[in-house]
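Notes, p. 3: input format for complexes.
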Amino acid sequence: MSGHMNLTLKVWRQKSPQDKGGFVTYKADGISEDMSFLEMLDVVNEGLIKKGDDPIHFDHDCREGICGMCSLYINGRPHGPKRAVTTCQLHMRSFKDGETITIEPWRAAAFPVIKDLSTNRAAFERIQQAGGYVSVNTGGVPDANEIPIPKVIADEAFNSATCIQCGACVAACKNSSAMLFVSAKVSQLALLPQGQQERYRRVQAMVAQMDAEGFGNCTNTGACEAECPKEISLTNIARMNREYFTAKFFKEEEIH
Amino acid sequence: MGNFSKTFSSSLGKKLIMSLTGLFICLFLVVHLIGNLQLFKDDSGQAFNSYAYFMTHFTPIKVISYINYAIILGHAIYALILTISNRKARPIGYAVYNGSANSPWNSRNMGILGTIILIFLIIHMKDFLWEYHNNTSLPYARYEASLADPQNVKVTPLAVTDKEYSHVDYVDPQSQTHITVAKDLYKLVRDSFKIWWYVALYVVSMVAIGFHLIHGFRSAFQTVGWDHKKLVPIIRFLGVWIFGIIIPAAFAAIPLYFFFCK
Ligand code: HEM
Ligand code: SF4
Ligand code: FES
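Output follows (518 residues plus iron/sulfur cluster):
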């Protein structure tokens, strides 16, 4: 039989973006170790609702690690203590009976708190809208191998494209830098033939938007890579820098 | 704003300045160390004092040293600008922060390590460079070494009197001796490193430089975008062993050598 555990939660509660907010302590008793972290919060929330209290607000959607909505800074780490998982994939067996768990929202000026643990990550959308797309109509499905792409390049582009825009990289970074996210989005298109037309405009536009959103500056600590649920690698940041400096110093394409 | 200033005011542009200035200072460290190794020569400072004179009086070297000061200053100023901007990017911090779970501590404390280095540099330049140029009571020394037996140097300290000495360095053809009269920076170095806390200051600062460069050297290559799979292991090796350990250890060996062996 799987064990049940009793936990103490220290949860960040904040009524609105303007509210100062603070920690509130809750008891989570009889939690099954097979539950996901979000299911554990569901149990706590049911208790709160029964008592007529405001349930804890947190982001979630797919609950299978693909949408990037769930966040939560758990005991000093984004998505909790396990590597390469989102919070919805984090099981309660990763915690010990009797443990105190501190739960905070992503902290960054560019990710303002909406309520409690839920943050506004629209800054990522605006960076994507600045250039993270291909404008030309791609038409119908082409024949296989009509556009040859070396396997290593295809694999690398695919790896970059697995980023789910969760923002854990920003949350983990001591500088609140968004460079892992932006570099993944730059890379997935810069590597492929379809992305070439806008390659040098794209990187300039996305970096400019990233700066305008008020994200910090990477110092290559590697915290983002270590905490990314999709294991996006630091190579992407080096590639983005290469693309950016090439665009700025050697290419005609400019942004205004 | 022009394209150029726009580039360098962007986050990546500022990072480029950090990395290029940082790498230039790394190059300077190598040159500085090679010069300073002459302090280990058992010649009472003949070679070192001549070298010090050359480095401070040969115009191209003087130009490069002013560029070097500007670059160190630029590195520190951009470090400050970036640190302020990073602070602004997270106005409310975490109550619980487990940084050691995902990154090495020196990579997270480059600013603190850099500040230790900066304070060290100010003390170092005041005590040796400034004194060398401006302290009129620094003694001179006269060295005579026969060309047949260059290891055997005869030293005459020239005490500070009203008489002004000037630098001479020549080979006397008659007596076949190499004669040098030079400001005795070597003596200043030797005397300074007889003070235990001064030696400790140097050793601690070299440890700070080591940790700064164990992260900084490879970080600079990542910043400029040079991270090819074949290159990274070489850069990591150089960053850790040459710049992080051997160079700082060799610098730290100088005060330790004078303290214990002279
Ligand atoms: C011996 C002198 C120094 C050397 C050789 C050196 C070298 C470097 C290198 C190579 C980097 C990596 C740049 C990058 O990541 O792109 C770096 C980063 C850094 N340095 Fe220095 N540095 C020195 C002194 C200083 C001083 C005096 C300060 C501050 C007062 C400082 C503050 C920093 C900071 C905050 C970073 C991290 C910033 C970043 O990675 O973007 N450094 N340094
Ligand atoms: S790079 Fe990783 S951590 Fe950052 S947004 Fe994408 S998936 Fe999340
Ligand atoms: S809820 Fe979709 S990734 Fe966690």
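The two ends of chain B are 59 Å apart (CA to CA).
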